Amino acid sequence: MNTITRSIVEMRGVNKSFHGVRALDDVDFTVGVGEVVGLLGDNGAGKSTLIKILTGFLKADTASIRIDGVDHQFRNPQEARNAGVETVYQEQALADDLSVARNLFLGKELVRKVGPFRLLDDGRMRRESEEMLRDLRLAVDPDKPARDCSGGERQGICIARAIHFEAKLVILDEPTNALGVAAVKRVLDLIRDLKARGIAVIFIGHNLYEVLEVADRAVVMVRGKKVVDVATRDTSVGELTELLMQRSGIGG
Length: 252
Description:
Layout: E1 7-18, E2 21-32, E3 36-40, H1 47-54, E4 62-67, E5 70-72, H2 77-82, E6 85-88, H3 100-104, E7 111-114, E8 117-120, H4 122-135, H5 151-164, E9 169-173, H6 181-196, E10 200-204, H7 208-214, E11 217-222, E12 225-231, H8 237-247
Parallel strand pairs: 3-10, 3-11, 6-9, 9-10
Antiparallel strand pairs: 1-2, 1-4, 4-5, 7-8, 11-12
């Protein structure tokens, strides 16, 4: 049973079709304050379409979307970010030629006035970057080029940026993909850190063991429908695997 009393995300009656093919069929989806929800399903299940609508990359045919109690119909990703929705993509999108510090402030650079000019305040960005990284116990040099960061470090940088700019919801798209064991553990610890700060998390993943380790609820989508919404304490990897296979028409 879900004990979350206040929702950060409320999506009701979400429908989306592409050229007559129903990608989302009357989907309801919620995430509470400090709640981690695992979003599961095979490719083509509708996960990506749902998230693209939530983040302003797609417009639903019909939907009611509320973020922290406020109605929204995002026309673009910037509007979603302005509402507190941040996404950390599987590709760990960073500007490889820039330092860690510059990436942490990418698009929201700090400036200082020198006479009539406004210049980048690299010193302040570096100092604040050190604090951000220290706060998350990330041993990363803020002067290090992003291209030299490991996969786990890149995920950490994106999460640190989301926290610093006061995200209400962080969406993690396959955050542990292609990471080693130690890096996976670090990413899962960062998800717990987000939860402890009261930040809502959507964890999109295929590794059920990882999802169940940190998620409060698991939502399973199949062919554009939400077919399962269960507290993780009330299920298991075996049960979810069987549900996914049955609902997808695999096996018996």
